[in-house]
Predict the structure.
Amino acid sequence: MIKKIVFCAVLILMTFFLLSSCNETRKKILDRLLQTESGDYENEKISKERIKELEEGIKEYTEDVERVVKANAEIGIYYRMLALEYIDLGMYNHAYENIEKALDFYPTHSVLSFYAGLSKANIARAEIDETKRLSLFYEAESYYLTAIRIRKGYANALYALSVLYMFDLEKPEKAGPLLEEILFRDPKNWEAKILYARFKVVSGDIDAAIELYNDISENAWDDVMKEQAGRNRDSLLAGQL
């Protein structure tokens, strides 16, 4: 029975120290452990020796648990960094493998979910099998939606999901509201504005598209972007786009 009590106490201590190791909290957890001890011992007082035993247990396991937590945090960071290197090289399968490992450490990390979606989408674009390709696109969609759910208004994820809907899943009607959200928060997001102009063309609102392309051709920060927007506007005016 005593061994069982000690084992349970150690489990509680290890779980607790994953969250905190400050002295004040240690005192609180020790007090709580003492209460559980008194329950098992009925009305008997807990000996000073038992108190000392628990205090020594706290001291012994704190350092071990803190080392494990720190090591796991570092491993998660390395997986994340490695994934980004693979993305820069266009090696999306390897990138996704490392993002998946990093997500084991940081499951609510919105940026990791975004990059997981980005990797899946690019893997899908190179897939020959139509059924598998569509499945991968929907996996990408799920990751993008997760990133947006975790971090409301996350522009990169909103934009990437818009691209997915516009060109990959052929659901442009879903892209419009996402692009509008981006532009509401950042009216000078020119990449989103160009895609929104394309959305307006697909939707049949040519006048709105011309107005958007005109704005981009006059005010965008990138000369290439301005020139392309101007050509698109002129094509629409000529009834060719």
Notes: Residues 172 and 202 are 8 Å apart (CA to CA). Residues 187-241 form one domain.
